[in-house]
Model the fold of this input.
Amino acid sequence: TNAVFGLFIDNSDTVNISNVTINTNTSVGVLIRDASVSATLTNVTATGNGADGLNADPIPLVTITGGNYSNNSSYGIDLNDITTVNISDANVSGNDLNGIDILNSTTVNITNVTADNNDGSGFEGSNISGTTTITGGTFNNNDDNNVGGGDGISLTTVGAVVTTGGVTATGNDPGLFISGAASYTDTDGVSSGNARPQEHTS
Done:
């Protein structure tokens, strides 16, 4: 708390972080660089930081279970060059940019997250070559600062996209934006009630 980085881990093999609180640092709450095997975060609280709640790259596998990455001055969770991403049951709300931001990945699984009231999008992903699966969760009322451009879910230049398990995305602009996807499958219907309808382009 009240440091530059709350926790900075560099050039490790396997990183495991659980049940810690890392708040109100002037830059990133949790910063992980060059873990050669994996990083696992369980019930981590990283809120109110001056940049991202969590920033990690490059790592073959990142698994985030539970935790709170909200009210940060940049992204809640910012992942770059992660081969496989698994995020479940995390709260990524009220951040100044996107709740979750993923760039350059292969497989992404987002399950039962709460990504509401971010100034950017709830979840934004780009350059994901494999399958992105979003199961359940809420992505509501993003673009909280009303400057435009805040989607519930925004995916560009991706492979297959699957939404299932009752994804809710209301009060956004739009709720779901997909551009440049290999395919899109929706098994339950993503909620409407957005400033613009869902947009899917290939």
